Amino acid sequence: MPTNDHIYNCYAPPPQEFVRGEGAYLYTESGEKYLDFIAGIAVNCLGHGNPTVLGALKDQADKVWHVSGMFRVPGAIALAEKYCAATFADKVFFTNSGAEAVECAIKTARRCQFVEGHPERFEILTSKGAFHGRTIATVNAGGNPKYMEGFGPEMPGFTNLPFGDMDAIKEAINETTAAILIEPVQGEGGVRTLDIQFLKDLRTLCDEHGLLLIYDEVQCGAGRTGKLFAHQWADGEADPDIMAVAKGMGGGFPLGACLSTERAAAGMVPGTHGSTYGGNPLAAAVGNAVFDELTKPELMENVVKISNYMTQQFEALKDAHPDVVLDVRGKGLMCGLKLKKKALDVRNLAREHKLLVGNAGDNVLRMVPPLIISEEHVREAIAILDEVFTKAKDMDDFEA
Q: Looking at residues 319-326, what average pLDDT do you find?
């Protein structure tokens, strides 16, 4: 087997090498079959090998791959129109990743305050436990010391506050505050969910103080909660001014976007921002196919139905394994189990039993499966977790 010797040691991948995927499963060269409940970290929303998305990619590959933002890309124009019609947004900037989408959101907010005559407003209020990407700006926005260590002095312009603490947010607002940046459902922070009323109150607060509300729905968007975007459960009463999206919107192809109102994007004129690959013809073709699938009512109905069933099964696991499971978390098919045992060790043991899951902050076992899963897939996963938790219960090495 080839080694990882010439790849940065930023990851520590297990020995499995997946060569093929179909639906909710991944396969190794030798034919071993794994149930995929991490989906590339909430990316493969339609599962592996979706024929509609694959067909769109192949069709575009025969035409043109790349022209850059110097020229009009019909597919990107069409995709932007779809997202604007389906959300609060009037404008879209396409990126290759979630971190780039958040970077664009930060620049858009600060630039908006600048062109509206408030250059002193540059500070962005963020939340502890947040994850907004791995660039210098986005790790500073997230505020996690582990991700910031060794990369120079702390960057000014971000104030990190307790997650879900409205009083702390109100107290932190001052004459330099430009925007509030928050994930409606935290992923890396431990699958923690904000109440819909909290989002509505944030919207009101921003309006009262002339601030911009930015959502990071890179992980909790793209249909993961049963709506196209998590904040849409508020029925228009908590819409942001700017939103960063990615992961599932490309269904596995690198694609992200910053969505914005006309007002917020008014200052983003030629020369203020750019992306060589963002919104290229291949990404746009895939993005259109994924959007069309995500906006089919039956898919979102499946997410709601299966997530309710999965939550019930997780609660049963919690009752059956009180020495392992502390709490059930999440919204839709963005699920978490806070454990008494080491989540990383439990994740690895699950992989030995052919179930792929993740782990997140606050010692949480994280599951973000493809949105196309069935009750049968859930039962298969629950059976594996039941066996894994039974083994972990009696293993001292798994103590958190």
A: 96
